Amino acid sequence: MSFSEDRFSDDSRLHLAQIIDNINAGIWEYNINTRVIKWSAGFYSILGYEANEIECSNHIFFDHLLYHQDKAVFLNALNDQSANSAKPIQIRLLTKSSGYHWFESTIKKQYDKNGQIIYGSIININQYKQAELKATRNDQHYGDTIRIAKLGSWEIDAATLNLTLSKQIYDIFELQTEIKLSIEEGVSFFEPPYRSVIQNAINNALEFCQPYDLELLFRTAKNHVIWVRAKGVPIINEYGKCVTIRGILQDIDSNKRKGLSLESSLNLLTDQNRRLQNFAYIVSHNLRSHTGNLQFMVNLYEETELAEDRTEIFSHIKSISSSLNATIEHLNEIVKIQTEITNERSIISFEAIFNNIQLAIKSNIEAFNARIEYDFSQCPQISYIPAYMESILQNLLTNALKYSHPDRQPHIICHTMKERNHIYLIFEDNGIGIDLERYGDKVFGMYKTFHQNPDAKGIGLFITRNQIEALGGTIKIESTVNIGTKFTIKLV
Amino acid sequence: MIIAAPSVNTCIIDNNQIYAYGLKKLLSIKDLCKQVTHFNNGSEAIAHLKDPGNTQNLPDIIFLDIIMPIMDGWEFMKEFEEIKSQLGKKISVYILSSSIDLHDIDRAKNIPSISDYIFKPVDVKQLQEIFKNLQGIARQ
């Protein structure tokens, strides 16, 4: 080890060299004029060599030790005129036995009597560099992952109720700048029906340490309505109190919408399947029952000799024949619903149709002395298949009369209602009602009758429901025995 | 002539009037049973079974339809299971239905007090078999 300066005595210089050799660093020196290069013992040892094991030369350094891609960095630093204030450079050098390692070197320039000297110290920074590269890779990976997952993270401090949001949250909010938001302001981005849901979830997490995982509708700053997943997990202190809620907000819009549309097509299929099953049931049960009876009566006719028996049997055969005919006609009506669905819808007036029906069954209404009221002012018109609407109203009206309470004057109220984008038809009576707990799921089934009414055929409500559902609506029933029945029909 | 077995008392629970008439007639023509009671639904039959005035007049055999208004065959079986131990008489119950739905058949199989499931209309030989067995049991 030698130093070009004469400031030190030989002893102290030697001593200094020993100290330097013992720290894990190497020192190099290069004289620009003489092109002489010098390495300290530490220089060799941090590269894994014994001192003087390899030739100390420019050629060895540039062609063997220095990684070819880092040559430019090193040469630039050497040529830099302001090298004295230059930052240390990071280069890769080939070690004796473990390949290239990262090193950091300072570069200093100095003029002395021997000319211009450049010197520096190198230390092995391989571990830190590897860790740094790994951290950068992880950061990149993390950034990519959350971007792909459309995920942002947030935190609420329980004491101050301060809300901290990650950059990705602002992306989901579609906010240009990362402005500070209060919890309340954050909640206001959710669609109105969901605001109380998220607010309650946050309150429960703060108060009772309950985690939550919700799927909610959200309106971004750019007015896009999207589905998001909001998940929060309370972090507790040693007393079990929530100190922080940490959570994520994820844009799950495309998945959720796919799921919802899948769900609605599943519902549609389930509905159609149910109707098909009902159809199969009618064919298997009702037609079978009629044909079985017919066969039975014909056999009996042959068995018996008595004329009076034969007369009676024949009268039964006649009645079976007409029942068979009626069943076939009912099946026809169901098939007709499916074919009429392609018929054009037109704008129809509820009042006009309702009055027509009242006129058509005038004698029936008078026989029951029924009081019928209607109010279609909230929605006087609808675009619908006229034949369906006539059939629906007529079925409901005749049903209400058929099942009116014997002890009181039938009172029937019919009105329309508009809510959001839907049109509802409400139909109420004060009739005998039906025990829905017992028959609930069967009310709209075919050939389901629940009272000992001789006129009951179990076809009206089945047809009504099919017509309503064929046009994408729904029908719901509420009823109390001896009080009355209310049908709520979502038409469109 | 063989002395007629203690006359069998049959009960039909079916809302189908024509079928009930036919079965009654067939039992009479085939000389299987003269004493036939008919109920339109399970509820009427339960009322009859429960009536203390009918203790001497209980059926030996019940032909039960499944689909009926007011109280269907399944609901009848539920009530029947509850009261049968108090009736003091063994009553054989046969489901007599036009349903060929496997679900119905399995359901009937799982009710211990149902002897068999018969499809409508009815096979005369099967009826004769049922009544022969019944008289055999009655004699023992």
Overall description:
Chain A has helices spanning 10-22, 41-46, 58-65, 71-79, 126-148, 167-173, 183-187, 192-208, 253-303, 307-340, 350-360, 362-368, 386-402, 436-439, 460-470; strands spanning 26-31, 37-39, 89-94, 100-105, 108-112, 115-124, 151-157, 163-165, 212-219, 225-236, 242-251, 346-349, 371-375, 381-384, 411-419, 422-429, 474-480, 484-490. Chain A is α+β, with helices and mostly antiparallel strands and 492 residues long. Chain A folds into four domains: 10-126, 2-Layer Sandwich (Beta-Lactamase), CATH 3.30.450; 149-251, Beta-Lactamase, CATH 3.30.450.20; 259-340, Helix Hairpins (Orthogonal Bundle), CATH 1.10.287; 346-490, Heat Shock Protein 90, CATH 3.30.565. In chain A, strands 1, 2, 3, 4, 5 and 6 form a six-stranded antiparallel beta sheet that branches. A five-stranded antiparallel beta sheet of chain A has the order 8-7-11-10-9, with helices on both faces. In chain A, α9 (253-303) packs antiparallel against α10 (307-340) and α10 (307-340) runs parallel beside α15. With 140 residues, chain B is α/β, with parallel strands linked by helices. Chain B has a single domain (10-139), classed as Rossmann fold (3-Layer(aba) Sandwich). Chain B has helices spanning 17-29, 42-50, 73-87, 102-109, 124-139; strands spanning 9-13, 35-39, 61-64, 92-97, 114-119. A five-stranded parallel beta sheet of chain B has the order 2-1-3-4-5, sandwiched between helices. In chain B, α2 runs parallel beside α3. The mean pLDDT of chain B is 86. Classes of the chains: A alpha+beta (492), B alpha/beta (140). The interface between A and B is medium-sized, with 25 and 19 residues.
